[in-house]
Design goal:
Chain B: It is found in: Cell membrane. The structure holds 2 protein chains of 2 kinds. Chain A is of the alpha/beta class. In chain A, helix 2 crosses helix 3, helix 2 packs parallel to helix 4 and helix 3 packs across helix 4. The mean pLDDT of chain A is 87. Classes of the chains: A alpha/beta, B mainly alpha. At the A-B interface, helix 2 of A face helix 7 and helix 8 of B. Bound molecules: adenosine-5'-triphosphate and magnesium ion (MG).
């Protein structure tokens, strides 16, 4: 059987910033349909850079990024939709939750009536249908992040990119949102690339964990997790989860700056 | 019984004002200070009543200059800011002149403007505008630049057009800074109008409150001078209150706390 083109394919992609900083050494990465891949590694190892290259917010200095085997002009078409969730909610403070969620549809030129009809289902997915008329200043940090996720989901993306979306939240809220994310991604077969600082979050969500190293940014190791395991509270308590966390801790210690001979704090 | 902080915020300054007025009145009466040195509040009130029509006419004149200058400042300032934000080159070439305009004391160039612009009203408006426009330009410019970089990336990722960027991102982002600029400018427009009237020193049908003050000084009619001064202060307070209310109204939703 001939395999379809991977959702994302990076071929010898490299990023050197205009100031000469080498953000990423040439690297290869393929992400297939329905995978949930997380990127983890020490600060400054190029996780955000890699994600922005995939979102076309950065241009590679070398190599090529392919989306479904095509170039970026294909993005936005049916079956080729991409959504990005930033570390901060980045909501429009002057608009209410419903209008914030509708924004990508407005920008994509979806007719108003059609766009309106998609707001509530998206808000329901993140449990915020009661807050549609509220303004961002009236929401908690976790609620704002959920609005940001609803805004990403409302376009019915085929590829979801998230850069430390829950980094600023407390552990309790973060775990709950992780469970919601796992459920959504599994249900819709959404292809997701997820940057995180937390190896527990990576272990809980991913079907594959990419461990990155710094100076220059590169892929150090890959760790595959059986995607068949249901990602719920029971999984978090299981021996399998503990073993995954142990393995990831070992991999991360190999790339920790101190081990690599750099100065600590 | 508990008093709300809001009631205190209104009542306390009023109480202070009443106390000061009472003390002022008492001091004038107790030490028999003649009105041409320091009029008592009741003398000022009497003068205000006696010269009511003339003073109100002058107030209308000053307010006309103020409002015209404010309107031109808003239109011109916002347009300038949009022009300056178009490119770094435009900004670096023009910004020094905007600053030169700002740092030159208006009193120093007002006589020149009054000679150049023949008609009195337009000359006064030009002077007041020169004073009032700067906060609008600089605040709007800063506001247009204060766009959340994440939101900007979001717009770019969705291939937003320049017009969409402007209407749905830049203008709303600039609004809080613009409103703060408007509040400062409204006060400066009044200052500018009064200063310009002083320099022009014109009487006649378009005489403003500054002319009333000058005239009262020549005639040693000190209560009338204070009455004109009181009207300027009240006008300033009303302007400040109006722009503050407008600011609250426009920004109430995205600063709402509850
Ligand atoms: N616009 C830029 N110009 C120059 N250098 C940059 C730029 N963006 C990132 N870098 C550099 O590239 C490297 C990788 O940065 P990146 O933001 O991708 O790291 P990260 O893994 O996301 O770190 P963190 O976990 O702290 O978010 C860093 O050394 C950073 O200083
Ligand atoms: Mg980062």
């Amino acid at each position: 059987m001939l395999a379809p083109a991977p959702t994302i394919h990076l071929q010898s992609v490299e990023k050197v910033f205009p100031n000469g900083v080498r953000g990423l050494a040439p690297l290869d990465l393929a992400v297939g349909q329905g995978e949930l891949v997380s990127l983890i590694g020490p600060s400054g190892c190029g996780k955000s850079t890699l994600l922005k290259l995939i979102a076309n917010l950065h241009q590679p200095s070398g190599g090529a990024v392919r989306w479904w085997g095509e170039d970026f002009s294909a993005i936005g078409r049916e079956g080729r939709r991409l959504s990005f969730v930033f570390q901060d909610p980045t909501l429009m403070p002057w608009s209410n939750v419903a209008t914030n969620v509708r924004l990508p549809l407005d920008l994509d030129g979806v007719p108003r009536a059609q766009a309106e009809a998609r707001i509530m289902p998206a808000l329901r997915q993140v449990g915020l249908e009661h807050a549609a008329k509220r303004y961002p200043a009236q929401l908690s940090g976790g609620m704002r992040m959920r609005v940001s996720i609803a805004r990403a989901l409302v376009t019915r993306p085929d590829l979801l990119l998230m850069d430390e979306p829950f980094g600023a939240l407390d552990e309790f809220t973060r775990n709950r949102l992780d469970e919601d994310m796992a459920r959504l991604c599994a249900r819709d077969g959404l292809t997701t690339i997820f940057v995180t600082h937390s190896l527990y979050e990576a272990a809980f969500l991913s079907s594959r964990v990419i461990v990155m190293a710094a100076d220059p940014g590169r892929i150090h190791a890959e760790y595959v997790i059986d995607p068949g395991m249901p990602r719920d509270e029971a999984f978090r308590m299981s021996d399998a989860f503990a073993r995954i966390c142990r393995d990831l801790t070992a991999l991360l210690s190999e790339v920790s700056p101190r081990r690599a001979g750099e100065e600590g704090i | 019984m508990t008093v709300s902080p809001r009631a205190i915020a209104v009542a306390a300054p009023i109480a202070v004002g009443v106390l000061v007025l009472l003390a002022w009145q008492a001091a004038c009466r107790l030490w028999h200070i003649p009105p041409y040195l320091m009029p008592a509040p009741t003398d000022i009130g009497a003068s205000l009543a006696a010269n009511g029509p003339a003073l109100l006419h002058a107030l209308r004149s000053t307010l006309a200059v103020t409002m015209a200058a404010l309107a031109i400042s808003v239109a011109g300032g916002v347009l300038s800011a949009f022009l300056l934000v178009q490119s770094r080159l435009i900004e670096t070439s023009l910004m020094p002149y905007v600053i030169i305009m700002q740092v030159t004391p208006i009193v120093a160039i007002a006589p020149l403007i009054i000679i150049l612009v023949k008609a009195t009203m337009p000359a006064l408006v030009v002077c007041a505008t020169l004073i009032a426009i700067f906060p609008i330009i600089s605040n709007t410019l800063q506001g247009l630049r204060s766009v959340d970089p994440g939101l900007e990336s979001f717009f770019r990722m969705h291939k937003a057009s320049r017009l969409q960027m402007l209407l749905r991102l830049r203008i709303p982002s600039a609004l809080p800074m613009f409103m703060a600029g408007l509040r400062i400018s409204s006060g400066l427009a009044l200052v500018g109008a009064v200063v310009a009237e002083f320099v022009a020193g014109t009487g006649g049908s378009s005489a403003g409150l500054a002319y009333e003050i000058l005239q009262s000084g020549f005639q040693m009619d000190i209560p009338r001078m204070f009455a004109a001064l009181a009207l300027i202060t009240v006008a300033g307070l009303v302007l400040y209150g109006a722009t503050a209310a407008l600011q609250r109204l426009v920004l109430r939703r995205w600063q709402a706390q509850g």
